[in-house]
Specification:
The structure holds 2 protein chains of 2 kinds. Chain A has 9 helices and no strands. In chain A, helix 1 crosses helix 5. The radius of gyration of chain A is 29 Å and the shape is elongated. Chain B is mainly α. Chain B is rod-shaped and about 85 Å long. At the A-B interface, helix 2, helix 3, helix 4, helix 6 and helix 7 of A face helix 3, helix 4, helix 5 and helix 6 of B.
């Protein structure tokens, strides 16, 4: 009796593995609607079809959604599409199984979220008034963490497969491997995308700092111009490695770069 | 003796009345969740919070904010709601608002 129960649980879990891909690999879907639906599901929100349609109908949403879903996903979508259509025929039993799978995965997800959130809070505490950059960085980390939990969850399902009857094992393992490979690809892509986004943001931030420094230099240069007409550009802090201690001020004006010495 | 008995009956009646009144208070309909009932600031909508949550999980929030698709307040609230497990309450509010439209 207990063994049979264990077997059915293992079968249920394995089936859930197949189903959870539909939920967890949400971002694979090229279609905005399914991305919205599955992203909400991945966050534990059950939204009506009307609400999902409404959200997905947002004009600019397509641009802001995961751009990594374009290439190579069509094939995956097609194969998943088959499963989904088969799956919906199974009805409530599958819903229950997918819920079970979500419950298992949710724990991983919550832990990952908590870690990312801690970093976010620290970022907000440092950034006065709450900078948007924290939310952006948080989003990136969250997406990576989410992809990681899917990989972790799928990897944890090997035991359930081992508990299946022998004749079902090979097929389930093949399916699990396929899902895992996709999840790993997803993780890699997400990481790359987030890294690229972070790098772009860093570059922008550096540009801004440079621009600000440039402005400040120009301003102080102008101030310096008023007091020292012979110094057009430098901000009064010229590089003087030979005389680091010579802070007496105004000591050697002639060497400080007076072009033409007006 | 009779007076005492009548006093005791009165006290019991008063206590019973008081208890009934208290029960009436506690049995009152539970107040709706603040997210469902509160008036939202102009830069916060239930729909926006859900969109922000979707983008946090699977999109580019920065671009979405730059495009005006969601507001920073909605992004912040989405993060808070995910943490507090209240995203479904926002979904509930969005569903209600959608039905009213």
């Amino acid at each position: 009796m207990g063994e049979r129960r264990l077997l059915s649980l293992a079968a249920g879990t394995a089936a859930a593995v197949l189903l959870v891909g539909g939920i967890g690999t949400a971002a694979y879907a090229a279609d905005v609607r399914s991305t919205v639906e599955s992203a909400l599901a991945s966050l534990g929100v059950e939204a009506s079809d009307e609400l999902v349609d409404d959200l997905a109908g947002e004009e600019m949403l397509d641009d802001a959604l995961d751009e990594g879903g374009d290439e190579g996903d069509t094939e995956a979508d097609e194969s998943e599409g088959d499963e989904t259509s088969d799956g919906t025929e199974e009805g409530e039993e599958e819903l229950e199984e997918s819920f079970l799978a979500w419950n298992e995965r949710a724990e991983l997800w919550r832990t990952a979220f908590a870690e990312v959130k801690t970093e976010f809070d620290a970022c907000r505490a440092e950034a006065e008034g709450g900078k948007g950059d924290c939310a952006v960085a948080f989003s990136g980390r969250l997406q990576v963490a989410f992809a990681e939990t899917l990989v972790e969850f799928l990897q944890s399902q090997n035991e359930a497969i081992a508990a299946l009857p022998e004749e079902e094992r090979a097929a389930a393992q093949a399916e699990l491997d396929r899902r895992l490979e996709k999840a790993l690809t997803k993780l890699e892509r997400t990481q790359e995308r987030v890294d690229a986004r972070d790098a772009a943001r860093l570059e922008r931030a550096l540009d801004e700092v440079e621009a600000e420094t440039g402005d400040a230099e120009t301003e102080s240069g102008e101030t310096a111009d008023e007091s020292k007409p012979g110094k057009p550009e430098k901000s009064g802090k010229p590089e003087k490695p030979e005389n680091p201690g010579n802070g007496g001020g105004g000591g050697k004006p002639d060497h400080a770069g007076k072009p033409g010495g007006k | 003796m009779r007076a005492r008995a009548s006093l005791a009956v009165s006290i019991v009646a008063i206590v019973a009345l008081a208890l009934t009144a208290c029960a009436g208070v506690t049995d009152a309909a539970p107040s709706p969740h603040p997210i469902l009932a509160s008036e939202l600031p102009s830069d916060l909508t239930a729909r926006g919070v859900l969109l922000a949550a979707v983008l946090l999980a699977d999109g580019d929030v920065e671009q979405a904010v730059a495009d005006g698709l969601v507001t920073p307040a909605e992004v912040d609230e989405a993060i808070r709601a995910i943490e507090a497990d209240e995203l479904d309450v926002w979904a509930q509010r969005a569903e209600t608002e959608l039905a009213e439209d």
